[in-house]
Write the structure tokens for this entry.
Amino acid sequence: MTATPHLDDRRAPGGQEDGATAAAQHAAAVRSGLGRRSIVLIGMMGAGKTSIGRRLAQTLDLPFVDADAEIEARAGMTIPELFEKHGEPYFRAGEARVIASLLTQGPQVLATGGGAWMNAETRERIDEAGLSVWLKAEIDVLLRRVRKRNNRPLLVSGDPEATLRALVETRYPVYALAALTVLSRDAPHDQVVADLIEALHARLAAGADLENHA
């Protein structure tokens, strides 16, 4: 009697091709299911919203928009300069206005700043015109990433790690209100993009976000 091969040893003909085809079909279904809505990436600084968002947009054949870059372009100064000259409340008010404007331009992949989702009005606008995805990263991953850059105005204190941990404690419970959560881990960005597409596809396939968004 021929032994039955272990499950891990089975190979379907064209398995890689079938996987690629399924991934392409899921991406197409996500793109179609969005209608006019945007995929809105939220999360902490260093979560990968911009780098992963660009790849996600490319995979879905959608425009990519970085809210922080748009804020800087409209203000004619960098975000650190806005914080220094006008303070955080002024910046947050402007941030909310810019995101509200951008949400009218979907479908797109929209990356938001780390504090944007903390604004209740912004959360409501995103829920109405988009599908929110929290890119969740562990604190050690965030620390490694943010230490590579010096353009984080909230981390200019004498103890950036303590500041970051305090922000995580405050923000993560609110980030958890997002429609979807996907782990942003130390892995190739294409893998995280694949996770995002599968999560989006499952959500849309369940019909949870299709009503009134055709």
User: Anything to note?
Assistant: Residues 45 and 178 are 16 Å apart (CA to CA). The longest helix spans residues 15-34.
